[in-house]
Amino acid sequence: MAQGLEFWFDEAADAAVRGLWRRLEKAGVPSLATRTHGRHRPHVTFAQAGTIPPRTREALREDLRLLSIPNLWLSTLAAFSANDTVLMLAAVVDTELLAVHSAVHDVLAKKVKQPNAYYLPGSWVPHCTLAQGIEPAQVTAGFAALYPVEPIRARVSGIAVVDTHTGEADPLIG
Asked: Taking a C-beta distance cutoff of 8 angstroms, is the pair 44, 127 a contact?
C-alpha cells in the first residue's frame, strides 16, 4: 500500500482529462479510469510514501492553506517506463510549481515512511497519468489517438492524501 498527495483539478480540467481517457479507451488502450476501476480522479501527484501519518497530514493542511497554488498547464504528451509503462500529460514546470512542491516536501521530510524517490525534489516530473501498465504497442496507439493534444489549464480544486490501491481519499483542501 502507498499513499499519494494528489492535487485534483477543477471541473473543466477534470472533464478534459476524462475525455482523453475515453479517447484512449476507443483506441483500445486501457486508461487510468479502467485500470483503477474508476477509483481515481484526474490529478497530479506531488508526493508518495508508504504512509503519510495523521499528524503530518494536519501539518500539510496548515501549510497548504498558506500557499498560493498555481494553475497547472498540462501540455506535453509523453511516455515513460518505471515499474509500469505510463502514458502521461506532463505539466509545464515553473518556479511557482516547484516552490509548492518544495514546501510540500519540507513538511514531509523525516515524517513519512518509505518516501517514493520519483516524487522527491530533483526527480519529480509533474504529470497527469492517462494510462498505466500498458504495452509498447498501446503507447503507440495512445499517441495516435491523442496527438496533437490540446493543452489543459487545470486550476487546483482540491488536495488529498489518497490510498493508491483503494482510491480512498482524505481531503486536506477543497
From this structure: yes
Angstrom distance (rounded) from CA 125 to CA 93: 8
d(Cα 108, Cα 59) in Å, to the nearest integer?
9
Q: Decide: 50 and 112 in contact? Cβ < 8 Å.
A: yes
Report angle CA 147, 70, 65 to the nearest 5 degrees. Answer: 140
Q: What is the pLDDT of residues 63-87, one digit of tens each?
A: 999 999 999 999 999 999 877 899 9
Rg (C-alpha) for the chain, rounded Å, is 15
Closest alpha carbon to 33 in 45, 44, 20: 20
The DSSP symbol for 147 reads P
Residue 119, SS3? helix
Strand 43-51 versus strand 3-9 pairing type? antiparallel
Alpha-carbon distance 42 to 27, whole Å?
A: 19
- What strands lie across the sheet with 85-91, from one edge to the other? 127-132, 85-91, 72-81, 152-154
**What pLDDT was estimated at residue 135?**
93
Q: pLDDT tens digit string along 124-142?
A: 999 999 999 999 999 999 9
Cross-strand partners of 44: 7
pTM of the model as a whole: 0.94
Residue with cell 509503462: 85
Whether residue 39 has pLDDT greater than 80 = no
